[in-house]
Structures are given as structure tokens and as C-alpha cells.
Amino acid sequence: MVKIVYEIGINHSGDVSKAKELCDVGKMYADYVKFQKRTIDVVYTKEELDKVRESPWGFTNRDLKEHLEFGSVEYDEIDRYCSSIGLSWFASPWDVESVRFLVRYKPEYIKVPSALIVNMGILEEIRGCDIPVIISTGMSNKDEVDRCVEYLGDHLEYILACTSTYPTRDEEMNMRFIRTLKEEYPGYRIGFSNHSPGTYWCTIAPAYGAEMVEYHGCLDRSEFGSDMASSIEPTGSRIIYNHIRSFEKGDGDGAWHVYDSELPLINKLRRY
Prior knowledge:
Layout: E1 3-9, H1 16-29, E2 32-37, H2 40-43, H3 46-50, E3 52-55, E4 58-60, H4 61-68, H5 72-85, E5 88-93, H6 96-103, E6 110-111, H7 120-127, E7 133-136, H8 142-152, E8 156-162, H9 177-184, E9 189-194, H10 200-204, E10 212-217, E11 231-232, H11 234-251, H12 263-269
Parallel strand pairs: 1-2, 1-10, 2-5, 6-7, 7-8, 8-9, 9-10, 10-11
Antiparallel strand pairs: 3-4
Helix pairs in contact: 1-5, 1-11
């Protein structure tokens, strides 16, 4: 069964109520929801945080980042809510402290951000958690992915084909890369991480062999947010879910069949 990951990321806009609404969408149309976790003053320099950046929550990059970042109170509430509706959640940590923060919730997975598969400090911390790991290939060459795969070893479960542009143009999707990864890394499960705003590539990824499909979800793409341009609204989530599950039913075993349902038509239509 293809695992569907509905990435909420920071599309909750710092609002726990909105995060719960997004979790409700994930419950209907996905197997997991995924967030992102950062320690702001570790991930960003003071110079980056002090830069002017107008948003609904202030006039600097710090104002924006701090508003979007959930802490213990918010994640405790998210954890309780997801448990109450029978939904699994995990997150991508962007620093060592965030790895340690997330481990407290005993997630089923940890996802290494594409930008950090070359960061040995965070990989070491993640490897020591004894939690299955997901990585994406976005913005990484083969040598970088190979080093990450070798270092994580048996802790790694999924490798997701990915292009890290937001949104990704059709010309950069390279869906056949899923098959390349399946040939290159036969000991791991291969999936697809989407940054296209449409549903098409998510729905056909399983036909290329993807065992996991991850995409950004939102309630309304017109809202403020850096990820909104590459996110998919609830109607699109329904389409992705229904098409992937239909594909699973229709993919078959490749064997030669004459189905029982065809027998009446044979009797009615066949001429010898």
C-alpha cells in the first residue's frame, strides 16, 4: 500500500486551530501528516533574522519565523488531537535541538530536510534516535545521497525522489528518476516528494514505483505563506487519495486473467 504523507509544514500560519483543520484533511486523505521544527536562533543567523521582511505578523524575518514556530504547548496539543482522531504525525527537524524535541513524541518517522542530508551533526543525532528515517533527494547529487544513505544504513527506510523548487515546473519533475532510485538503492523503499501545485504528478507517481507520496497541503492557496504556491487544497487532496487508491486496486498482478465477470459476455457475444 502506498503511504501518503500530507505535509502541513508551516501552512498552519502559527495557528493551532488551523493546524487541527489541516490534520482533519490529513485524516481523510493521508496516512500521516508532517510538520517542520526549527530552533530559530540556531537555524538562522542574527543577520538573517534582522532582515526586513513584511508579513501579517511584523516587519522582520524574526517576526515571521517566531510566529510560525510551534513549541511544546502547541505540539502537545497537536499530539493530543492527532491521537484523538487516530492520525499519525511526524516532522522534519532543522537542527539537533529540534531532533531531541521531536523524539519525546515517539514519532513513527523522522524526515531529514533535503537541505540537510549533508549535515553530519543532524544525521548523527537522528541515527542515534532509533526511529525510521526518510530522506529526499532534492538539491542533492548522487555522491551526497550515497554518503547519507551509507551513514544512516539500516535506520533509513524511504528515499524520496524530489526536486526542491517551489513550485516545480513540469520540465523539472523527472518522474523516471523514481525508477532510477529503485535500481540504485534496492535495499530501500523509494517514494516521491512533490512540490508541484497540481495533483497530476502525485497521482501517477505510484505507476513509476513510488511506495510513498508526500506533498504540501493547505486550506487556501491564496493565504500568505512561502509554501502556498507549491501546496494543494483539500479538493486536490481528495483527488490524490482517490486516484492512488484506485491505482492500487487496478494495478493487478500482471498475470493473464479471464474474470468471472466476463463469462456472461463470453456466452452472449463470442462467435466461433
